[in-house]
Amino acid sequence: MEYFLSLVSGGVGGGALVWLAKGWISERLRQSIQHEYAQKLESYKTELNSKVEGIRHENQVSQLRTSLFFDHQRSAFAALIAKIAKNNEEWAELGDPDEGLFEPIPSAGRQEFEALILEHQLFLDEECLMALSLVTQVYFQSLPYDDRSGAPLHQRECSQLVSDIKYLHPRIASIFRAKIGVTANRQHLVDVAVLSAIELVNGYHFADAGIPPDGKLSIRGIRDAADKVALGLDNAQELVCLLRQFDKHLSRDGGWIHEAQLRVRQTLGVLERCIGVRPGN
User: How far is CA 77 from CA 11, 74, 82, in A?
Assistant: First the structure.
């Protein structure tokens, strides 16, 4: 009987030891795993904080770049709009109320305007460049030209060209306002794009491409910019198709008239977006 109790007592004591040993091992294992997880968690936190700081830094740099870009863009727009207004004022003063205006755009003002475009070109997108190229073209049209008669250079009457700039000035200002987040009239961009297109297809001679057009897209006898825009809006689909045809023709000829093709593509891209025509349709 005593032997049996001894065995039972020993068994119970051994079981207790085993139970205690298992509990100790389990606790040590739990603490080891907890410590390992804590180390990993701390490592992840450090890595995450580093990534967050990196993202925050990139955002700050991006915001700074954006701020600097828009600051420069606003300065560029203000300078260009002011120069257009000043040029037109000085140009109009050269005219005579009775005889008209037989003077080209003052060369100093024209050169300063072109210099501003070159200076700020990085901050001007396709729409801005298209609009400003119209002003440049009006200035060019005011210059004396050779009529191939052997006579001295001929100076055209420029009152209508001054009026064209007056038409363009507020619309270009509206386009610029839209670029810097100020409410603007979207129709102004449409007007400028249509005027650019109608002038392009009527300003060159490529019979194989139907340039200049006969019929309803011809601006023979139409001088006022607003009337040209009205004509283009009334025939917008046909105007886009003709402009595409002109672009293909210029590409086929190897792009030797680079400036014309650049203006055609700028205008075509803007016009397709403005009037909701898909490219190639």
Answer: 96, 5, 8
pTM of the predicted model as reported, rounded to 2 decimal places: 0.76
C-alpha distance from residue 60 to each of 55, 57, 180 (Å): 9, 5, 20
Q: Which residues pair with 96 in a beta bridge?
A: 100
Residue 153 carries which DSSP code? P
Domain total for the chain?
2
Q: What is the pLDDT of residues 129-179, one digit of tens each?
A: 999 999 999 999 999 999 888 889 999 999 999 999 999 999 999 999 999
177 and 190 in a common domain: no
Phi and psi dihedrals of 182, rounded to 5?
Answer: -95, 140
What is the four-CA torsion angle of 71, 171, 260, 222, rounded to 10 degrees? -170
How many C-beta neighbours within 10 Å does residue 281 have?
A: 9
Both 175 and 205 in one domain: the answer is: no
- At 182, the amino acid letter reads V
